[in-house]
Design brief:
- The chain contains eleven helices and 21 strands.
- The chain is of the alpha+beta class and 573 residues long.
- The strands form four sheets. The chain has a seven-stranded antiparallel beta sheet, with helices on both faces. Strands 1-12-11-10-9 form a five-stranded mixed beta sheet. A five-stranded antiparallel beta sheet has the order 15-16-21-18-19, with helices on one face.
- Helix 1 packs across helix 6 (226-249), helix 4 packs across helix 5 and helix 7 (305-319) runs parallel beside helix 8.
- The longest helix is centred in the middle third of the chain and has 29 residues, at 196-224.
């Protein structure tokens, strides 16, 4: 069975060929546009500054959106691109389940169901309606990573085989009513997680974020009036749709496709999982078909269809009007086709803890598929995955349980006009930050012995890929290690003659007896003094390596990005 997921669900009055929205002057429209975007940034700042865990206040694993009353995006802050145009699915799902009359002033809701929001259970969406003079005018929503949801292993499991092993799963659930906390629900949450105090603290930070959004939108409506704000909204949506249709129409009609593979599902380590992205351009419309992919896997590499739509939107935005801020006019010309029961549209009880591995692959495959049609905008693949390193155990300094989970940066792909960036977070995570060494060592019993660029990891080309990193840890106490590293079967490919970047490598106790090479492992016992060396992959190159300027090769050697021996082998320099 194949389902079509149309992404143009906004209710603005304009279409590409339809009537213009209600009259509002361009200056007022632009002021309101910027005010809405700033309101979303204010929400994000509130969340980050109010949060209790370094996953949010340091790594910034969160995103926020301000929505209109029809669930269209008015403004979305910088944050994780994988949540692009996805937060509104939570408010839509709540309204579908309980009816439009369910919204009340002062109420706040929570949702983390993987089959509705699409992500893993740790990504929790908190949202509430916004009323001005007893009239519903919109919603404020945020999504943030909670450090533990009571899964079978602290923080999350790399070997889960069912959603029921992954922790507390909440459908739309009211956590504040008429401005007051629903104490029974708060108590229920606190009893299901291993870190109740910081978890409820992060939840309250998201509630504060929603209230900031409500104040900002009320101020905007109060200043200009609801009719003017709605007219400006319609003009903004219509302008965005026109721009995107124009960009798509400039791409030659046709069907473009690309295929890649995940290494495995974390359980069956010998079986790669395929993903094919097929993109159809028909005039000013684009369709992305991802139905040709592996069935939902035993291991936790699945996601709900809503998250696959979000990933396709990221790939789309990389090539179509990427400079235009996201709003309800975005994605009107885009349709995404998914297949229920596949790993990209999983159904209960599929495990979903590491949903982003195949989504990062989907994003890169969208670009690879369309590269022949838009060679000046397409980039080679990046290192691709979040490359998760997780430590958990009892900290001897405090006697308390701890969980440290961090993503690892790597190399991005080159494109026509530039080398790929080195040491950058993957395109799934966007504004996510790697954990500062000082914070990591202060909070957890681990030391970082080396953090450096990984030389020779970039794919060669006329423009080269970016380099990955080396991050080496020494454990200061006995603890458990979990890893989720990807892209060794399908490393970061080059395009138009460029070569692939180096695959990732993770080594426990390098140079010692008992040395082990690892990419995926769950709750492996390590001892005080053990060493973990992580080497992330580089990005792919663009164009033939023989066309790279000798001066550029020499500069890479001078900066330590490239060794002299590798330069001679790859570039003949």
């Amino acid at each position: 069975m194949t389902t079509g997921t149309g992404t143009g669900t906004g209710t603005g009055t304009s279409t590409a060929d339809g009537p213009a929205p209600a009259a509002v002057d361009p200056i007022t429209t632009e002021i309101i546009r910027c005010a809405l975007l700033q309101a979303a940034e204010d929400m994000n700042t509130t969340l980050i500054r109010s949060s209790y865990t370094p996953t949010i206040y340091e790594a910034k694993d969160c995103a926020v959106a301000l929505l209109d009353r029809d669930h269209n995006v008015l403004g979305q802050s910088s944050g994780l691109p994988i949540f692009l145009g996805n937060l509104e699915e939570c408010t839509r799902a709540t309204e579908r389940m309980y009816g439009a009359g369910i919204w009340r002033p002062g109420d706040v809701w929570v949702l983390n169901d993987s089959y509705i929001g699409g992500t893993h259970l740790n990504d929790v969406t908190v949202y509430g309606p916004i009323f001005v003079k007893d009239e519903l005018v919109g919603f404020a929503a945020s999504r943030a990573h909670w450090i533990d949801m009571g899964s079978k292993d602290p923080g999350g499991s790399m070997d889960s085989t069912t959603i029921h092993q992954e922790g507390l799963r909440m459908g739309p659930l009211k956590i504040y009513e008429n401005g007051e906390p629903c104490v029974l629900i708060h108590d229920l949450i606190s009893r299901q997680v291993r870190f109740p105090h910081p978890t409820l603290g992060d939840m309250r930070a998201q509630v504060a974020c929603a209230r900031t959004g409500a104040r900002r939108l009320a101020e905007i409506v109060g200043r200009w009036g609801l009719d003017t704000v709605l007219a400006a909204r319609d003009a903004i949506f219509a302008q965005t749709e026109r721009l995107e249709r124009r960009e798509i129409a400039a791409i030659p009609d046709g069907v473009y496709e690309a295929t890649g593979h995940l290494d495995n599902d974390g359980i069956d380590l010998d079986t790669p999982l395929h993903v094919t992205v097929r993109v159809t351009i028909d005039g000013d419309r684009m369709t992305m078909d991802v139905t040709d992919c592996a069935d939902q896997a035993t291991g936790p590499v699945n996601c709900g269809a809503a998250q696959t739509v979000a990933a396709c939107r990221v790939g789309y935005k990389l090539l179509v009007s990427g400079e235009v801020p996201l709003n309800g006019g975005s994605f009107k010309p885009l349709d995404v086709l998914t297949r229920p029961g596949s790993m990209l549209a999983a159904v209960e009880p599929a495990a979903c803890q590491y949903y982003y591995s195949h989504l990062g692959l989907v994003i890169d495959l969208v670009v690879k598929a369309l590269a022949p049609a838009v060679p000046d905008r397409a980039a080679a693949a990046g290192y691709g995955d979040s490359m998760i390193v997780q430590f958990t155990g009892t900290d001897p300094r405090s006697g308390k349980l701890f969980v440290s989970q961090e993503a690892t940066v790597g190399g991005w792909g080159a494109w026509e006009a530039s080398d790929g960036e080195s040491c950058l977070i993957n395109n799934v995570n966007g504004s996510l930050r790697d954990m500062p060494v000082e914070v990591l060592e202060t909070l957890f019993p681990v030391r970082v012995e080396e953090y450096a660029i990984r030389p020779d990891s970039a794919g060669a080309g006329r423009t080269r890929g970016g380099n990955g990193v080396v991050r080496q840890y020494r454990f200061a106490a006995d603890q458990q290690l979990s890893l989720w590293w990807e892209r060794s079967v399908t490393p970061a490919w080059g395009i138009f003659g460029g070569t692939a970047g180096a695959a990732p490598q993770v080594t426990l106790n390098p140079g010692r007896d008992g040395r082990r090479s690892l990419l995926k492992v769950n709750a492996l016992q390590v001892r005080e003094g053990d060493v973990l060396r992580c080497e992330s992959g580089g990005g792919g190159g663009y164009g033939p390596a023989g066309e790279r300027a000798a001066e550029a090769v020499a500069e890479d050697v001078r900066q330590g990005l490239l060794t002299a021996g590798h330069a001679e082998t790859v570039y003949g320099a």
